[in-house]
Amino acid sequence: MNPGNMQKERKNLTDRLIAEGFLKTPKIIKAFGEVPREEFVLPRGRDYAYADTPQGIGYGQTISAPHMVAIMTELLEPKPKDKVLEVGTGSGYQATILSKLVKTVYTTELTPELVEFARANLQRAGCKNVKVIQGDGSKGYSKEAPYDKIIVTCACPAVPKSLIEQLKQGGILIAPVGGAWMQDLKLCKKTKSGVEEKSYGGCVFVPLRHGKN
Ligand code: SAH
Q1: Distance, CA 3 to ligand 1 centroid (Å)?
Q2: Which numbered atom of ligand 1 lies nearest the CA of 90?
Q3: Which of 18, 27, 94, 164 has the fewest C-beta atoms lying within 10 Å of its C-beta?
Q4: How far apart are CA 94 and CA 37, in angstroms?
């Protein structure tokens, strides 16, 4: 597919995500219109880059479906001065969408090959304010803590306590919480008096794994 068609397909997908109610905020809609998803999939998946489905990216992992990226990005209420932590870089697509809306994104990835994949994708997409860190992100990334927002893009059995600890007061964490086959998309807001939790329905993510840091 030529670049002109890619752009047309990106616009069609963005319009569809708006019509379906997944995309609402003008600056988030703009970010979806700008990030070339074809640069974050494997070469064989390029022609389907604008289908609203997840795609395999190797090593048993996936790039999330665009509507899921839209839901999570909207729930995170990204602000220009935000420092964001992502657990599960994968392709780097979600991090790149966020990078258009916040100051800096720190994103952790356990699989070294995917760290390389994501770094190459980010470079092709011209994204400069995303830092990819190789390691187990389930305990967060204390070096840059605290964060305004934290997004977990792999399924965890419960919200990791260390991630809540690395969240600023007033900060938002979003994570798929549940078993291996189905999770509940949970939003946690850290307040003066504790953590307020809200559920946003079923979702399916690859599981969070544990590894050496
Ligand atoms: N956000 C990604 C999709 C994430 S898929 C995108 O936009 O493409 C989930 C990713 O989490 C996988 O790449 C997997 O390797 C990674 N992962 C699993 N357990 C992890 C852990 N403990 N720390 C960091 N990354 C982890």
Answers
A1: 28
A2: 13
A3: 27
A4: 10
- Of 90, 125, 116, nearest to 6 by C-alpha is 125
Two tokens at 92? Answer: 């780097």
Distance of alpha carbon 132 from alpha carbon 202, whole angstroms: 28
Q: What is the mean pLDDT of each run of 10 residues along the chain (213 residues)?
A: 88 98 98 98 97 97 98 98 98 98 98 98 97 96 98 96 97 96 97 96 94 60
**Residue 42 contacts residue 57 (beta carbons within 8 Å):** yes
Which one-letter DSSP state was computed for residue 85? Answer: E
pTM of the model: 0.97
64 tagged catalytic: yes
Give pLDDT, residue 212.
58
